[in-house]
Q: What sequence folds into this?
């Protein structure tokens, strides 16, 4: 069999490795059954919380950057974000979830985070 | 009788050339108006697909491309019989026709670039440390220290993204000149800086290949992969999946061949 197309690179192994890494690590369909339904739901809920947490964090950073937060506000936002992050760590541990699992594949739009 | 589908072509006549596809079956054309779906008989259970099947699929499409404009169908698209294929053609006829017109005499090229993300980050950190204003002071509370660390990470990430954009813009400048359409994905992984596909007119292929030579310079620290010419897998535009695809084992008809195709290809080098 002769293919006319060429794949040209001096680093084939590295590209194979990167492409494998970049392929979907998330299942396209939810495998829901009585044994894993709790974890599946926790994963979905925690993913959404993580998204909101990251958005909050980003917004806070933008405000720090713009200098629009007072000392007191920095203190309060810092405390809130730190508590939120710690709580997330705790919940992830309880449900045996890793950081990379907290994501959703949005098809052509790519991954949620 | 199951039918394995390779592509939609702008021809309703029977294929005169002997082309053999998966399982060594001869391919034939199921026509609808002035277009056709190229298929071959298929007996195996759908899940038993191998790397050589991917290459056989690709080979059939490339043979077809020598004579026709082809909308390559996603690897592993199997219909239960002629009726399913015919129904698909009937339902999507106008979309197929539009795509065939748009993609006539065009091919797809893939460009992937790996950059040394560790070194880039190291450089960014060093530059940041030298130049950053101290937003928070060491005697700050733990809450403020937390914010300081987050702010530092935020700035480093922003700089990392900015650098990636800059690199991609420069590379894209070389390729865009010779392409009619493009799809670029930035940082699919930290190291995979760019994963791009370009749609190129057949008579501009030579120029496009030369453009690749420009970014191959080993002194840039970039590692690149060039592939093609391929059938335009990534440039077929169809309305979203509808009920008519229930007959096939696919979620969508086009796309998603690329990873398997490049993996198979890269492995052959």
A:
């Amino acid at each position: 069999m002769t293919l006319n197309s060429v794949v040209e690179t001096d680093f084939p192994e590295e590209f194979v490795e990167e492409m494998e890494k970049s392929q979907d690590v998330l299942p396209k369909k939810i495998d829901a059954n009585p044994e894993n339904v709790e974890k599946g739901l926790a994963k979905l809920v925690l993913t959404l919380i993580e998204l909101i947490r990251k958005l909050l964090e980003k917004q806070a950073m933008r405000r720090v950057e713009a200098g629009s937060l007072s000392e007191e506000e920095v203190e309060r936002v810092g405390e809130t974000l730190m508590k939120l992050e710690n709580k997330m760590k705790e919940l992830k541990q309880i449900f045996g979830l890793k950081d990379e699992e907290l994501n959703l594949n949005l098809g052509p739009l790519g991954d949620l985070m | 009788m199951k039918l394995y589908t390779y592509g939609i072509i702008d021809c309703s006549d029977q294929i005169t050339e002997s082309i053999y596809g998966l399982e060594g079956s001869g391919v034939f054309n199921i026509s609808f108006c002035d277009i056709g779906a190229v298929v071959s008989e298929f007996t195996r259970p759908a899940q038993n697909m191998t790397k050589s099947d991917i290459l056989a699929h690709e080979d059939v499409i490339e043979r077809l491309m020598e004579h026709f404009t082809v909308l390559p169908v996603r690897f592993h698209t199997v219909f239960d019989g002629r009726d399913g294929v015919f129904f698909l053609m009937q339902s999507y006829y106008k979309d197929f026709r539009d795509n065939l017109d748009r993609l006539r005499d065009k091919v797809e090229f893939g460009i992937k670039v790996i950059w040394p993300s560790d070194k880039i980050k190291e450089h960014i950190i060093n530059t940041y440390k030298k130049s950053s204003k101290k937003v928070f002071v060491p005697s700050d509370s733990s809450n403020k220290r937390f914010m300081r660390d987050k702010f530092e990470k935020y700035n480093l990430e922003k700089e990392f993204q900015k650098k990636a954009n800059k690199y991609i813009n420069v590379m894209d400048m070389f390729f865009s000149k010779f392409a009619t359409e493009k799809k670029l994905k930035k940082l699919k992984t930290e190291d995979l800086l760019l994963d791009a596909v370009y749609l190129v007119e057949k008579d501009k292929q030579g120029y496009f290949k030369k453009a690749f030579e420009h970014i191959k310079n080993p002194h840039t620290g970039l590692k690149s992969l060039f592939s093609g010419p391929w059938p335009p897998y990534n440039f077929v535009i169809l309305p979203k999946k509808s009920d008519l695809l229930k007959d096939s084992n696919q979620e969508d008809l086009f796309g998603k061949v690329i990873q398997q195709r490049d993996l198979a290809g890269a492995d052959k080098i």
